[in-house]
């Protein structure tokens, strides 16, 4: 009986033993690396049908596809880093504008107790009878500036903040519009105004934005046409 038992134990030892897999809580990297790709390619070549071997062109295409995918992934990482550097550079550049006056393409502007509003009328051609109108938030015209005939280019204007009688108007937001006579009709002209930069905002979606005094909504750094002393 002892011999039979010993033989049985020996046979059990020769039987197939299931490999013990170690369970780990650590997350595994599911990305296919270059080493993994070449291992798969080697296995593919080892088990291919000898009567129907893989064509060289097909093998080259597989290698090219993997190389291209890996290159795109690396390029995306580099572009992400470059975008971060550019955002930081723009933020640093924009921060130097805080407290300064910038010229932006808008007719909405803010008047304080001590300052008026100045800006530029853009003319694509020589124009007659150019007039700048200052309106309050209700659309009422509070002041008009007659500029007369102007050549093509940028025509500057200044408003000291007073009405037609010379009375100082209260601080607040005003709308500046420019008109000119072309033929028998009056046309509105593009206008830009100066505004003081109060602060700078950094947004992942919109990049760097300049917050201007009294004007809602930020302006991009690329919108700035000119920088002047505050």
Low-confidence stretches: 1-5
CATH class of the domain at 71-105 and 190-230: Mainly Beta
Rg over alpha carbons: 37 Å
Using the alpha-carbon principal axes, give the shape.
elongated
Beta-sheet strand percentage? 35-45%
Question: Pairing-aware structural class of the strands and helices?
Answer: alpha+beta
Query: How widely separated are the two ends?
Result: 107 Å
- SSE ordering: HHHEEEEEEEEEEEE
- Indicate the percent of residues in helices: 25-40%
Q: Briefly note the CATH topology name of the domain at 71-105 and 190-230.
A: SH3 type barrels
User: Biggest sheet, open or closed, and with what strands and sense?
Assistant: 7 strands, antiparallel
Task: List how many beta strands DSSP finds.
Answer: 12
**CATH architecture descriptor name of the domain at 71-105 and 190-230:** Roll
Question: How many helical elements?
Answer: 3
Quote the average pLDDT.
Answer: 76
GO biological process, one term: bacterial-type flagellum organization
Family: Belongs to the FlgD family.
Organism: Corallincola holothuriorum
Protein name: Basal-body rod modification protein FlgD
Describe the structure.
- With 230 residues, the chain is of the alpha+beta class.
- Among the domains are: 71-105 and 190-230, SH3 type barrels (Roll); 117-189, Immunoglobulin-like (Sandwich).
- It has helices spanning 2-14, 34-46, 56-95, and strands spanning 101-104, 108-111, 117-123, 127-135, 141-150, 153-159, 172-182, 185-189, 191-203, 207-212, 219-220, 226-228.
- The strands form 2 sheets. Strands 1, 3, 6, 9, 10, 11 and 12 form a 7-stranded antiparallel beta sheet that branches. Strands 2, 4, 5, 7 and 8 form a 5-stranded antiparallel beta sheet that branches.
């Amino acid at each position: 009986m002892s011999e039979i038992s010993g033989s049985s134990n020996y046979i059990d030892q020769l039987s197939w033993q299931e490999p013990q897999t170690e369970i780990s809580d650590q997350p595994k990297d599911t990305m296919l690396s270059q080493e993994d790709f070449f291992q798969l390619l080697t296995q593919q070549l080892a088990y291919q049908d000898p009567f129907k071997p893989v064509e060289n062109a097909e093998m080259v295409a597989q290698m090219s596809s993997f190389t291209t995918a890996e290159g795109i992934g690396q390029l995306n990482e580099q572009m992400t880093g470059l975008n971060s550097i550019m955002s930081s550079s723009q933020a640093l550049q924009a921060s130097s504008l805080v407290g300064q006056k910038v010229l932006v393409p808008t007719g909405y502007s803010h008047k304080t107790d001590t300052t008026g509003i100045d800006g530029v009328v853009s003319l694509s051609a020589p124009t007659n009878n150019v007039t700048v109108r200052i309106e309050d938030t209700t659309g009422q015209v509070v002041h008009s500036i007659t500029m007369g005939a102007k050549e093509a280019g940028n025509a500057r204007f200044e408003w000291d903040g007073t009405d037609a009688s010379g009375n100082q108007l209260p601080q607040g937001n005003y709308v500046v519009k420019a008109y000119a006579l072309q033929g028998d009709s009056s046309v509105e002209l593009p206008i830009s105004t100066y505004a003081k930069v109060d602060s700078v905002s950094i947004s992942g979606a919109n990049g760097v934005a300049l917050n201007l005094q009294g004007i809602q909504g930020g302006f991009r750094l690329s919108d700035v046409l000119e920088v002047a002393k505050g």
